[in-house]
Amino acid sequence: MRFMMLIKHPRDYDMRNVPPALFGPMGEFIEENMKKGVVIDGAGLKPLSKATRLRLADGKVKITDGPFSEAKEVVGGYALCETKTHEEAIELATKFMDLHRIYWPEFDGEAEVRPLEDGGEPPQA
């Protein structure tokens, strides 16, 4: 089963504020899980000042460049994962968050784990 793990922060962040002690253990964790085939892809995202939003409303597309003052939470990164079960995906996300807890105690955020659609036939109405 494939899952998307989205890492969310309550506000935008600057990579210069991430404790250097997190990078080694996080790199090892990602490398180990990529070798196992559990993590397929992933990355941190640049700050909102580099983002652009496209919003469709009332039949019109509105384009807005960041940063976005109304942002209540920010997706800071993602990981595309493949595990046998939902529980294994949750275990992977827990280990990821534990690295933050240990090496970046001031970090507040969440990991959202969501299964991907299987690409089969669309649901019947």
Q: Gap between N and C termini, in Å? A: 25 Å
H and E string:
EHEEEEHE
Proportion in helices: 25-40%
Oligomer: single chain
Strand order of the largest sheet: 2-5-1-6
Report the mean per-residue pLDDT as an integer. 91
Tell me the β content. 25-35%
How many beta-strand elements? 6
Please identify the structural class as seen in this structure.
Answer: alpha+beta
Shape: flat
**Given the structure, what is the number of helices?**
2
Flag low-confidence runs: none
Radius of gyration: 17 Å
The main β sheet shows up as: 4 strands, antiparallel
Could you explain how this protein is built, in words?
The chain is an alpha+beta fold and 125 residues long. It has helices at residues 20-35, 86-103; strands at residues 2-9, 39-44, 52-57, 60-65, 74-82, 110-115. The strands form 2 sheets. It has a 4-stranded antiparallel sheet. The protein has a two-stranded antiparallel sheet with strand order 3-4. A hairpin with a 2-residue loop joins strand 3 and strand 4 (60-65). Helix 1 (20-35) runs antiparallel to helix 2. The model has no long low-confidence stretch (mean pLDDT 91).
